[in-house]
């Protein structure tokens, strides 16, 4: 910016500082006025030049005059002496000291036009310099996008351009890159992460900016379409220059293009991984490995694996996938689920992470890579047993629980109450004993202390109330499941 110090330093103008309390005050333009109250016609940042044509008899009026100019945020007041005032009025000097307004004297030989022309020249020169610097910064940011880690390179170049710090974060506030830059130690990471989490609900339409006594902070969503993939947070001077603002805008645009390229590559990679999972689930591990060899870096696939199948909303599945990819796990959307193929010792930890992300997860049995069909199928059976309160089921535990582990408890109870509804407690106990002894009426009689004829009569009565004969294996299986569901032993 052009400052009051810049014009006072111009020897050709011969300006004399009378009360200069802020040499770094920015100058936006030069205004000339002989009005007794020019404040309503100013926008702030002007140098006001006057000969004091209407102030020849002023004394106390100077205080109100300067007070109004201070309220209008003028950068300085320049009084031309030798016309209305032969020398600088003491009351004017006192008023400027009181209100903190810069004051300088314009000698009779210096025209106001010369001051205006000089300021215009400085502003134009500064604008040209700023444009050149902005162009150089723009080229550096674009060049950074061509490096091996484009996002990190762009963030680093931006931090240097604004003389502060920059950081790239995920939509949930985790740091991806940074903070980097000369002022990275002062980066307010916790507050920025909170801003990111607050903004993510608004998609690409919302950004945040705040100004502090020592720095400015801005947060921008990154992406050209859909939901933001990352957020760019930048700190810099309390008041950014036009060039620094352009640098932030350029970085957001460049990172958006980088993100689009990465999304395209990710979509291709995920399609290939989805195809590899399909091949593994079909027991074609050889072709699956050939497909994965085209993916660099390829995910880790061991000789023994467990399949994980996760269901949930599309957004939850999409958000959970990057964490698996980051850990080198073969994972991709497949058949309206999120499917992963993991080493057996890592499967449950990965499943817990997916449950934390809002998904329900079934983990299949540990199988060799050549028997992926079994692993995929058992993962689906385990997934079918999950509920909102039991978000993860492991196939091994379903097996340990026997066939009843495959039946929904509420449905099993309803089946038992309906199937056994006609039996009293004595008949239920007789039926349970009959099944326990594999249909041996003699052993039922011995255990219950009954005559064999009594046992036969009871069983005939029970059979009459059931939908099948007790010697039919299907009836026995149904009876056992019903009894276990109604009165587990």
Automatic annotation (TrEMBL):
Pfam families: HTH_30, PucR
Purine catabolism PurC-like domain ranges (all copies): 23-122
InterPro entries: CdaR-like_regulators, PucR_C-HTH_dom, PucR_C-HTH_sf, PucR_dom
Name of protein: Fis family transcriptional regulator
Domain PucR C-terminal helix-turn-helix: 428-484
Organism: Mycolicibacterium wolinskyi
């Amino acid at each position: 910016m052009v400052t009051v110090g810049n014009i006072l330093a111009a020897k050709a103008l011969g300006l004399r500082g009378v009360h200069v309390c802020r040499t770094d005050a920015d100058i936006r333009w030069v205004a000339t006025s002989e009005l007794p109250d020019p404040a309503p016609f100013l926008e702030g940042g002007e140098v006001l030049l006057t000969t004091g044509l209407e102030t020849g008899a002023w004394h106390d009026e100077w205080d109100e005059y300067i007070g109004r100019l201070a309220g209008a945020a003028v950068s300085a007041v320049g009084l031309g002496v030798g016309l209305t005032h032969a020398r600088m009025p003491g009351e004017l000097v006192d008023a400027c000291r009181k209100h903190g307004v810069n004051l300088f004297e314009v000698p009779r030989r210096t025209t106001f036009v010369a001051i205006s022309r000089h300021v215009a020249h400085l502003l134009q020169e500064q604008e040209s310099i700023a444009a050149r610097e902005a162009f150089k910064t723009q080229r550096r940011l674009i060049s950074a996008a061509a490096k091996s880690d484009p996002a990190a390179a762009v963030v680093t170049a931006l931090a240097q351009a604004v003389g502060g710090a920059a950081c790239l974060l995920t939509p949930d506030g985790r740091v991806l890159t940074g903070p980097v830059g000369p002022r990275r130690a002062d980066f307010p990471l916790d507050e920025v992460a909170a801003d990111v989490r607050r903004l993510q609900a608004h998609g690409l339409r919302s950004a945040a900016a705040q100004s502090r006594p020592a720095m400015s902070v801005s947060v921008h969503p990154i992406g050209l379409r859909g939901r933001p993939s990352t957020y760019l947070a930048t700190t810099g001077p309390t008041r950014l220059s036009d060039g620094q603002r352009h640098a932030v805008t350029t970085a957001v645009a460049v990172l958006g293009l980088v993100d689009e390229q990465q999304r395209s590559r990710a979509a291709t990679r995920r399609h290939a991984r989805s195809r590899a999972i399909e091949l593994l689930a079909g027991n074609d591990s050889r072709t699956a490995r050939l497909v994965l060899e085209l993916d660099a870096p390829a995910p880790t696939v061991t000789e023994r694996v467990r399949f994980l199948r996760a269901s949930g909303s599309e957004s939850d599945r999409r958000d959970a996938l990057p964490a698996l990819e980051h850990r080198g796990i073969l994972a991709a959307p497949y058949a309206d689920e999120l499917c992963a193929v993991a080493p057996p010792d890592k499967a449950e930890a990965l499943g817990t992470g997916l449950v934390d992300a809002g998904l329900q997860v079934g983990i299949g049995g540990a199988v060799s890579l050549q028997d992926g069909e079994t692993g995929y199928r058992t993962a689906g059976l385990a997934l079918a047993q999950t509920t909102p309160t039991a978000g993860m089921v492991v196939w091994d535990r379903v097996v340990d629980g026997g066939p009843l582990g495959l039946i929904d408890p509420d449905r099993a109870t309803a089946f038992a109450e309906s199937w056994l509804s006609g039996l009293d407690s004595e008949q239920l106990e007789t039926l349970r004993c009959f099944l326990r002894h594999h249909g041996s009426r003699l052993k039922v009689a011995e255990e219950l202390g009954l005559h064999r004829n009594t046992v036969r009569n009871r069983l005939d009565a029970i059979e009459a109330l059931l939908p099948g004969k007790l010697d039919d294996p299907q009836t026995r299986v149904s009876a056992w499941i019903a009894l276990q569901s109604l009165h587990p032993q």
